[in-house]
Amino acid sequence: MAVQLQTVRTPAEEAILARLAEGGRRHTQTREKAVARLRANGLPNRRVEAWHYTDLRTLMRDAPPPFEAFTDDLVAEAMSQSAALSLKDAAHVLFVNGRFVRHAGALEVVDADTGDQAAAAGDAYGDDGAVALHRAFAGRTTTLRVPPSHRSIVHLDFRELGTDAFSTFPHLVIEVVEGADVLVLETHRGPNDVSYQTHALIEFHVASSAKVEHVRVNEAGNKALSLSTLGVDLAARAAFQSFSLSSGANVARHQIFLRSLGEHAKIGLAGATLARGRQHADTTLVVDHTAPRCESREFYRYIVDDMATGVFQGKIVVAPNAQKTDGGMKSQTILLSDTAAMNNKPELEIFADDVVCGHGATCGSLNENQLFYAHARGIPPVEAEALLLEAFAGEAIDRVGDEQIREQLMDKVRDWLAQRVKS
Amino acid sequence: MLEIRNLHAEIDGKKILNGLTLTVKDGEVAAIMGPNGSGKSTLSYVVAGRSDYTVTAGEVFLNGENILELPPHERAARGLFLAFQYPVEIPGVTTHVFLRTALNAQRKARGEAELKTAEFMKLMRAAADKLSVTQEMLRRPLNVGFSGGEKKRLEILQMTLLAPKFGILDETDSGLDIDALRVVSDGVNDLRAPDRGFLVITHYQRLLDHIKPDTVHIMAQGRIIKTGGPELALELEKNGYRDFVADAA
Ligand SMILES: Nc1ncnc2c1ncn2[C@@H]1O[C@H](COP(=O)(O)OP(=O)(O)O)[C@@H](O)[C@H]1O
Ligand SMILES: [Mg+2]
User: Fold this and answer.
1) Chain B residues interacting with chain A (CB cutoff of 8 angstroms)
2) What is the pLDDT of residues A158-173, one digit of tens each?
3) Residue numbers in chain B where pLDDT is lower than 50
4) Strands A140-146 and A108-113
5) Domain definitions of chain B by residue range
6) Is the shortest distance between the CB of B11 and ligand 1 below 6 Å?
7) Cα angle vertex A210, ends A205, A216, to 5°?
8) pLDDT < 50 stretches in chain A
9) Ligand 1 pocket, residue B14 CB under 6 Å
10) Which DSSP string do the residues of A257-276 spell out, in sequence order?
11) Are B88 and A370 a contacting pair at CB < 8 A?
12) Beta bridge partners of residue B74, listed in sequence order
């Protein structure tokens, strides 16, 4: 037998492996693969390139048990609280501690034991460590079918509740049929001071000429660890826009794996991240152009204060046949303190010759000239900073098409800035 | 009234103002002319309170109060206004939001009630019309993508709304064509009042044909080297700075 040099497992890894050994979960090919990956590699860590800046061996202290204690009281309590954001005329789909609870509105929703779709879809992110962790534990899959004909509005409302640490593994598949047009709001809210963990996987299958606007708001509690993966497949002429506002959680990673499978797909990804204290906030994108004549734009803004850390990784891949790809990526950061940190990693992997692709990243403090100009007009320093920061985040929020949502996102930015002034 | 006494200032260890003394009374329009690099913009920044300059000696009084210890926004609230030589672009902040924020901040600092949106809009519209500033410009981010002339008109619009006790105009004429020069000058002349003084910094006699100064000061190497009436500007236009600077040395 070969001697293997094994790194010492972290308490979280020990807990995960022990729980997997207990069994009791349905066997599927997808799960077996995920479990094998976890056994072999442990949690994603700094030696894995895509996880270099978000090392779960250090950031994930433990692995609390999957939440099981679903009761009517729990649901009633969830429903008595307000969502992170409200949206008129939306089909409301409620998830409590990771589990689909109910939905209202005209939408086809099926909640069932997780089957083996991933293998069938030939997915592009099965190798990712967070996806493996999710698949090892996810038990149910909620499938939404968005009909064609009129514009649908859906609110995926995720609430976490409880006082003891727990983990959740929600899995959603959203089928957007040919020609459909949908606005999907995804919000996350949970309690402060509870070390809960959410491992979410949301997969969009967007058929040709369909249009999706997706807005995600993460207001997880201050001790939470929030890992989120968005997988997107786009057929020809599909349009997919996604915006993410991230201000919650102690450790947050939102990753998007997007593939354009047909010509003329249009992609717009944007986000605003607000981090303070000792928060760690990561956005990781892989935009894979596998068909010709697609367009993608990525626009991300970070405001990082105190001892917080921001991470932006954006990879644009252009396959050999994806000629005439038009890609542009931008990430900009304002650091508000000397101890705040930002890691920027833009990457282009271009295998076609007739493409226009570019990226730019900036990182700095607030502009002194702008501040002085505002001061000279009588605007006090605190207000001047808030004005500039609000504008900075606002330029990302401007990418959101829905006005009702945009206004609420701006309010959230203002609230965040107001707290900064108080402390 | 603005009184500057023996002002010395430096930046990054480089001395720029070297004992500048100047008084501009209420109701007076004083012009400062001087070659490039003589410290005119530095003077305007130091009076407005820009923190990267270090004042090593001297005093600046606004209506009798020494303002050098005050932060810039408090100087503004006490009625000091600087029209920048290079107005700053602020992406993401619309011009009218910026103006409303500034005006209300000053009102608040003076213990006055903030203006309601409707009241403010009315004031702003009236001022904008006079300066040929369109509503479309007011909805755009401040100074972003504006031409040189548009930026200068906006500076005067801000001055009109903020109604300062003392205005410093730093090369407000640069980058203006004849028509814009007239609009801007009319805007300034409208604000001339017995209780309001102006310091107009310029290179050219041209501006002073429109904004007629009471006094003209020539500045070189961080000091006022000669003071006179409007005829001094004409003399300067004819002979250039060389003679004055040589005399002073
Ligand atoms: N940040 C700075 N660091 C060093 N020197 C400066 C700085 N700003 C201005 N100066 C110098 O100060 C002098 C005066 O500049 P300025 O006040 O802009 O003159 P003016 O407005 O009369 O043309 C110039 O020699 C200029 O190069
Ligand atoms: Mg100058």
Assistant:
1) 48-52, 71-73, 75-77, 82, 84, 87-93, 98, 101-103, 105-106, 109, 141, 158, 162
2) 999 999 999 999 999 9
3) none
4) antiparallel
5) 2-248
6) yes
7) 65
8) 1
9) yes
10) EEEE-STT-EEEEEEEEEE-
11) yes
12) none
Atom 9 in ligand 1: which residue has the minimum CA distance? B42
Closest ligand 1 atom number to CA of residue B38: 22
What's the angle, vertex CA B152, arms to CA B150 and CA B154, rounded to 5? 70
Decide whether any atom of ligand 1 lies within 6 Å of the B223 Cβ: no
Q: Measured on CA atoms in the order A162, A164, A165, A168, is the torsion positive or negative?
A: negative
Instruction: Give me ligand 2 centre to Cα B40, in Å.
Output: 5
Q: Which helix (H) or strand (E) holds B82?
A: strand B80-83
CB A30 within 8 A of CB A203: no
Distance from the Cα of residue A177 to its chain's centroid: 23
Which CATH fold topology does B2-248 show? Rossmann fold (3.40.50)
Residue B44 CA: which ligand 1 atom is closest? 17
Do the chains contact at B105 and A379, CB–CB below 8 Å? yes
C-beta of residue B32 within 8 angstroms of C-beta of residue B228: no
Predicted pLDDT at B86:
95
Residue ID of nearest Cα to ligand 1 atom 27? B37
| Residue B41, ligand 1, Cβ within 6 A | yes
Task: Look at the block and give the residue holding tokens 């997988």.
Answer: A231
- Residue A87's nearest CA partner among A178, A160, A182 is A182
Residue A383 Cα distances to A367, B69, B177, angstroms: 14, 20, 36
What are A95's two structure tokens?
A: 């998830």
The β-bridge partners of B90 are: B142
Question: Which protein residues have a CB closer than 5 Å to ligand 2 (ion)?
Answer: B 40-41, 85
Judge contact between A365 and A339, C-beta under 8 A: no
ipTM above 0.90, yes or no: yes
Tell me how far apart the alpha carbons of residues A236 and B40 are, in angstroms, rounded to a whole number. 61
